[in-house]
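Homework help board

Subject: predicted structure for assignment chain

Our instructor gave us this sequence and asked us to write out the predicted structure in token form, then describe one feature. I got the tokens but I'm not sure how to describe them. Can anyone check?
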Amino acid sequence: MNTNMAFKPIRIIDPTTNSNCYIIEDGIHALIIDPNNFSLINAYIKARRLSPEWVLLTHEHCDHISGLNELRQHYSFKVIAQAACSLGIQDKTLNMTRIMETYLYFKSNGTVLTSYPKFTCKPAELTFDKTYHWHWFTHQFTFLPAPGHTPGSTCILVNNTVLFSGDYFIPGEDVITRLPGGDAVIYEKIGKNILRALPENLLVYPGHGDTFLLTKEVKQNYGL
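My token output:
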């Protein structure tokens, strides 16, 4: 085990929803953030001969958890999520699977008509309600509940230098609060304060899109 390795998450993009999954490695040990596509994740794990130990969730929407059930069938690991997220993944409305086919159709301006299964997931093994500090080998994680996009939306700060933002800070997109579980009022009152307090110059790994630097200008563009 090399605990001094550089922090270089691997990104896996689901071709149906363009959602991002990230895999962090430490030797043969692996941590997965937002398991979006079992086949792609499993292929990478097997090619690298990794042992998944933890899965972290940024929120409960189905495009960020669609690979979780199959991963649980093949590997032994624990899931960490905000308590509201853990509840949401158990509900077909809150996890968006009830409307995902329609959502993808309208988001594509009527060009994508695809079948999307309705599913739920078992609850997370480890949950939290407030800011939660946790470590994995040499990496320090801070889970920051930031409701608004969903009740269980969480930003995950790692080593005080990297941010996994889920569906906040998606390049070129405004924060969406109109989907199941979204709440514009709570986002304005609570969610924005969490995002506003984030330090500048974090390297952001968003739920969709490419990695970027969280500058003062980026925060201003989001009204923070």
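Reply (TA_rk): Your tokens look well-formed. For the description, you could write something like this. The CA atoms of residues 57 and 161 lie 19 Å apart. That's the kind of observation they're looking for.
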